[in-house]
Amino acid sequence: MTDLPNLSPASFRTPDPEALFPATRSTHAPRVLLLYGSLRERSFSRLSAEEAARILNALGAETRFFDPRDLPMADATADDHPKVAELRELVTWSEAMVWSSPERHGAMTGVMKNQIDWIPLSLGGVRPTQGKTLAVMQVCGGSQSFNTVNQMRILGRWMRLLTIPNQSSVAKAWNEFDDAGRMKPSPYYDRIVDVIEELVRFTLLTRDIKDHLVDRYSERVESHEALSRRVNQTSAV
């Protein structure tokens, strides 16, 4: 039963309790990046993200936003473009992310997807999203839908983010914010609080062990060069 002729036992990694349950935990404020998916002056996805940031700050987190204006379309320019570099630096800085997008034609917006497309699976020898936590939120112009959050969950899994179970979908978003851009008290607001509280808890629980949670045998036996070619696949697109 212990004979594994087709495998490489030298690359096995037995779970290390000391690594999974470190005696010393990080004490700095959780670092959270918020992305939103609309360029409108009164963008409800941005307003929702701003409400999320207020809650995060009240819970002791440090928050930063990325402004998607002037971000070129993915692959339309070199990745040393200033806006691309800014986005990638923020992703590298973060320990968690909030993605907030409108739903348009039953899907996330191009603005949202373009930001995600500029985030590489591998940056040098580092995976900038691997093992970090993610919360997904959407705003709807009409009745409540979950198409966009479901799509963003698929992207989060593909990018090896730990997407939390809870999520937010705000129906008729135009009716849920006052003239100052603040969200009115409602079950929709309460759900955003639920989502952000859960994100902070998951981040605190996992940020010191994230590399162990997504460590894979198949990649330990693969060369760095082969791994980089496979995950980036720039020639294929």
Question: CATH topology, what is it called?
Answer: Rossmann fold
Any idea of the CATH class? Alpha Beta
In total, the number of domains comes to 1
Beta-strand percent range: 5-15%
Alpha-beta classification: alpha/beta
- Average per-residue pLDDT, rounded, comes to 89
Annotation field: number of helices? 9
Which sequence of SSEs, written as H and E, runs from N to C?
A: HEHEHEEHEHEEHHHH
Report the major sheet.
Answer: 7 strands, mixed
Task: Tally the beta strands.
Answer: 7
Give the uncertain stretches in residue-range form: none
Q: Examine the secondary-structure arrangement and name the CATH architecture.
A: 3-Layer(aba) Sandwich
Detail the topology: elements first, then pairings.
Blueprint: H1 17-20, E1 31-36, H2 44-58, E2 62-65, H3 82-93, E3 96-104, E4 107-108, H4 110-117, E5 133-139, H5 147-158, E6 162-163, E7 168-170, H6 187-206, H7 210-213, H8 217-220, H9 224-232
Helix pairs in contact: 2-6
What report would you give on this structure?
It is built from 9 helices and 7 strands. The chain has helices at about 15-20, 45-60, 80-95, 110-115, 145-160, 185-205, 210-215, 215-220, 225-230, and strands at about 30-35, 60-65, 95-105, 105-110, 135-140, 160-165, 170. Strand 3 and strand 4 (about 105-110) form a beta hairpin. The protein is an alpha/beta fold and about 240 residues long. The chain has a single domain (about 30-70, about 80-230), classed as Rossmann fold. The model has no long low-confidence stretch (mean pLDDT about 90).
